């Protein structure tokens, strides 16, 4: 049986270029929660990795976030790690594995993933794409082809994301 109704366009995408050892990204969590609450599944929120060299555990944290995503708890894991940035600074990979355990994830699999590097290509690809589109710091948002840099100031960013999302949703529904 064929469906002749017009296909509904995909939800608009908000790419969030983030680094899990970044205090600015931790401060952006409230905005991300508000956006998820306002739009639900009408806006696809995608974590994109942009580990910064100045944070020595950021690359491992990005890989761990990918493992959490694979185990079905990506955003809760990201929020848990960002909520305790200072602890990640002090404890590194042990903290990443412990956080997985606290969330009921398979901590042994996290440990193995960090050793075998199964998620390195995803993190590398995100970082390369970020550099290619001009991401220089975190958090940076990309929605509707517009890049919004929150690395220097996050003031007004959520409102700007909402304006763009509302426009994109109106175009999608209208």
UniProtKB/TrEMBL annotation:
- The species this protein belongs to is Streptomyces caelestis
The UniProt entry's sequence similarity note says: Belongs to the thioredoxin family. DsbA subfamily.
Ranges where the Thioredoxin domain occurs: 1-166
- Top-level taxonomy: Bacteria, Bacillati, Actinomycetota, Actinomycetes, Kitasatosporales
Checking InterPro entries in the record gives: Thioredoxin-like_fold, Thioredoxin-like_sf, Thioredoxin_domain
Its protein name is DSBA oxidoreductase
